[in-house]
């Protein structure tokens, strides 16, 4: 496994200098646990929904319709969405304010129930997410996959990053860098690969004081030319 300091130097060289790299990393959007815990659960459900609908659609389409989504789903109030009736679901399938995808519409109700369960168990869903240790990020991904709806893989990762939770995302550039650094031998395909990534990120985080998102972006920016590796 390689030395993160060398990866940082390589990323800085690719980006045009350390100052440029640090400015890019300052835009990661990571939040403190206290900031995440203070997030209303309706905003947690909204971000889940945004990421679920982004999958398979151009993000600009979802962004352009987002005010309609907010209105159609009553501001993503978890209790209101959890009680979505069959008639209301059918009406949403005809609602031009949103992207009319039946399974994804149903995921809003399912994930609202998931968040209500977390709130009952932990005080709020946001508190549960905030308190989960970054050193077991892959464990949190498993929770999202098993207890949430359509929150597996890339969608769950991007949801976590979207709420400010430090998160690594194995994009093509990140995977290429991890292979170069001896963490992986191929694109990740199972729990063993994700365990290896978690261990590498944990070690690099302990050594550098940087969070998972920063390290993920550093790895990505160490690949290719300027303008690439933005994940």
The tally of helices reads 15
Q: Under the CATH scheme, which architecture of the largest domain would be assigned? A: Orthogonal Bundle
As a percent range, the share of helical residues equals: 55-70%
Total domain units: 2
Distance between the termini: 21 Å
Gyration radius, to the nearest Å? 19 Å
Fraction in beta strands: under 5%
Mean pLDDT: 95
Helix and strand string, N-terminal first?
A: HHHHHHHHHHHHHHH
Protein name: 3-methyladenine DNA glycosylase
GO molecular function, one term: DNA-3-methyladenine glycosylase activity
InterPro entries: Adenine_glyco, DNA-3mA_glycosylase, DNA_glycosylase
Pfam family, one: Adenine_glyco
Structural descriptors:
single chain; mainly alpha; 15 helices; 231 residues; Endonuclease III, domain 1; 65% helix
Summarize the structure.
65% of the residues lie in helices and 0% in strands. The chain is an all-alpha fold and 231 residues long. The longest helix has 21 residues, at 102-122.
What do you see in this structure?
The chain is an all-alpha fold and 231 residues long. It has 2 domains: 4-30 and 168-222, no CATH class; 34-132, Hypothetical protein, domain 2 (Endonuclease III, domain 1, Orthogonal Bundle). The chain contains 15 helices and no strands. It has helices at 4-15, 18-25, 33-37, 41-54, 59-64, 66-72, 78-82, 86-92, 102-122, 125-131, 137-147, 153-162, 172-180, 191-208, 212-221. Helix 1 (4-15) packs across helix 15 (212-221). The protein starts with a helix and ends in a 10-residue tail after the last helix. The mean pLDDT is 95.
């Amino acid at each position: 496994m390689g030395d993160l300091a060398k990866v940082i130097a390589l990323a800085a060289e690719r980006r045009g200098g350390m100052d440029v790299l640090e400015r890019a990393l300052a835009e990661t959007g990571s939040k403190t646990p206290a900031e995440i815990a203070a997030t209303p659960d309706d905003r947690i459900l909204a971000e889940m929904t945004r990421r679920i609908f982004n999958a398979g659609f151009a993000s600009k389409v979802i962004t352009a319709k987002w005010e309609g989504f907010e209105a159609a789903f009553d501001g993503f109030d978890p209790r209101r969405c959890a009680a979505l009736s069959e008639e209301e679901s059918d009406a949403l399938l005809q609602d031009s304010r949103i992207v009319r995808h039946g399974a994804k519409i149903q995921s809003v109700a399912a994930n609202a129930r998931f968040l209500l369960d977390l709130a009952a168990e932990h005080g709020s869903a946001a508190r549960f997410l905030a308190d989960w240790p970054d050193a077991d990020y892959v464990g949190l991904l498993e929770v999202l996959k098993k207890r949430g709806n359509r929150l597996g893989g890339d969608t769950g990762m991007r949801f976590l990053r979207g709420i400010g939770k430090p998160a690594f995302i194995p994009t093509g550039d990140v995977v290429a860098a991890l292979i170069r650094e001896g963490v992986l031998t191929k694109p990740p395909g199972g729990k063993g690969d994700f365990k290896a990534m978690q261990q590498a990120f944990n070690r690099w985080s302990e050594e550098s004081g940087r969070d998972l998102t920063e390290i993920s972006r550093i790895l990505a920016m160490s690949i290719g030319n300027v303008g690439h590796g933005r994940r």
